[in-house]
Design brief:
This protein is α/β, with parallel strands linked by helices and 370 residues long. The protein has two domains: 117 residues, Aspartate Aminotransferase, domain 1 (Alpha-Beta Complex); 207 residues, Aspartate Aminotransferase, domain 2. It is built from twelve helices and ten strands. The chain has a seven-stranded mixed beta sheet with strand order 1-7-6-5-4-2-3, sandwiched between helices. Strands 8-10-9 form a three-stranded antiparallel beta sheet, with helices on one face. Strand 5, helix 7 and strand 6 form a beta-alpha-beta unit. Helix 11 packs across helix 12. The radius of gyration is 21 Å and the shape is globular. Bound molecules: pyridoxal-5'-phosphate. The site of pyridoxal-5'-phosphate has 13 residues, from helix 4.
Length: 370
């Protein structure tokens, strides 16, 4: 047998050097899966019926999907050509980095941030530049602006920041954008925007008009609970989105995903969405309060996840974190609850079922007592 790590054909050395995206683990024993920022609720009302009624799976879906794009465009007050769909917003991140950054060009993002960012440029040879977070696990906008070079082609801003939780505030965003060259693409990744309660947070729909170089990303995966169907969207300048479409794999969005997304925008589904988001936010606040009561320094949590920093890590502003990411993750695994460890930085815990909140607090309490 040949070594499985050595391919039998010539492949790119730079590709072989990079590990593939690592998905949150699936549970091996009964417990909670809090490792992928998924939604614990069943699909929204009307979604399963829409999927079942779609039929014609032997045909390709009509890729333009004007009804869905018009619905999204209406929310942003733009025309339909400002909306681009893809099989998940991560696909659009990939497309935009490819459309703007060639081999040797740089794209900038905070770090830790969404785990997929560093590998987005791999296939094109674009270089990921991760700028360490500042105190409170927030974006360090001075350092990010200082890191812009002649080769910077894309800046990815994640709000709220996955995995650490804080939002980008509107004033921070405005000051930063004033330092970004007008011909540099900025992507505001708002995958978790429905969970945001901070009134100071930047909102894509409020700033899009002021910045022709901005694309706002949203997804149906998180609050809408359609992660398994793969559908997300970008809103921005039509010429930028046309370039993203040029490097996209054709026909990525399925008709079933389109129907589910359309059903999710119906009034009854939206009402249920609001209730579910409120429930997740309530659980998130209970988790944050419970963890802080245990003496941990938990940053502002504005997504459907909570960040437990490692003591003294770059993403913790003080020393009141856990002492070992690996040891805490092992305690979670032992209890049958899966979370996402970031070695040397912290542990991200998704907000899941109501019963998962006391379970998480009990595991962390037990860990700290040892
Ligand atoms: C910040 C951020 N952006 C984008 C995505 C991609 O989501 P999707 O491709 O499911 O739309 C995720 C998924 O976890 C995320 O955390």
């Amino acid at each position: 047998m040949s070594d499985p790590a050595v391919p039998p054909v010539r492949l790119r050395a730079d590709v072989l050097a990079v590990p593939a995206y690592r998905q949150g683990q699936a549970p091996t024993k009964p417990g909670f899966k809090l490792s992928s920022n998924e939604n614990p609720f069943a699909p929204l009302p009307g979604v399963l019926e829409a999927i079942a009624g779609r039929g014609e799976v032997n045909r390709y879906a009509a890729a333009a999907m004007p009804e869905l794009r018009a619905g999204i465009a209406g929310e942003f007050g733009v025309t339909l050509d400002h909306v681009h769909l893809a099989a998940g917003s991560v696909a659009i991140l990939f497309q935009l980095v490819h459309a703007a950054a060639a081999a040797g060009d740089e794209y900038l993002h905070a770090w830790p941030s969404f785990e997929a960012y560093p590998s987005l440029g791999l296939a094109s040879g674009a270089v990921s530049v991760g700028v360490p977070l500042a105190a409170g696990a927030r974006h360090d906008f001075d350092a990010m602006a200082d890191a812009i070079t002649e080769r910077t082609r894309v800046i990815l801003l994640c709000t709220p920041n996955n995995p650490t939780g804080p939002v980008i505030r509107a004033d921070e965003f405005a000051r930063f954008m004033a330092r970004v060259p007008a011909d540099t693409l900025v992507v505001l990744d708002e995958a978790y925007r429905e969970f945001v309660t901070d009134p100071e947070a930047v909102r894509g729909e409020r700033v899009l008009r002021d910045h022709p170089n901005l694309v706002v990303l949203r997804t149906f995966s998180k609050a809408y609970g359609l992660a398994g169907l793969r559908i997300g969207y970008g809103v921005g300048d039509p010429a930028i989105l046309a370039a993203a479409a040029s490097v996209a794999i054709p026909l990525g969005v399925t008709g079933i995903a389109e129907s589910a997304a359309l059903a999710s925008l119906e009034p009854a589904a939206r009402a249920a969405l609001g209730e579910r988001v409120a429930a997740i936010v309530e659980r998130r606040e209970a988790l944050v309060a419970g963890l802080r009561a245990l003496g941990l320094e938990i940053p502002e949590a504005q997504g459907n996840f909570v960040w437990i920093p490692e003591a003294g890590s770059a993403a913790a502003s003080g020393t009141d974190g856990i002492s070992s990411v690996a040891a805490l993750a092992a305690d979670f695994a032992e209890a049958g609850t899966l979370v996402r460890p970031f070695p040397g930085a912290g542990v991200r815990v998704s907000v899941g079922e109501a019963e998962s909140v006391p379970a998480v607090l009990a595991i962390v309490r037990g860990h700290l007592a040892r």
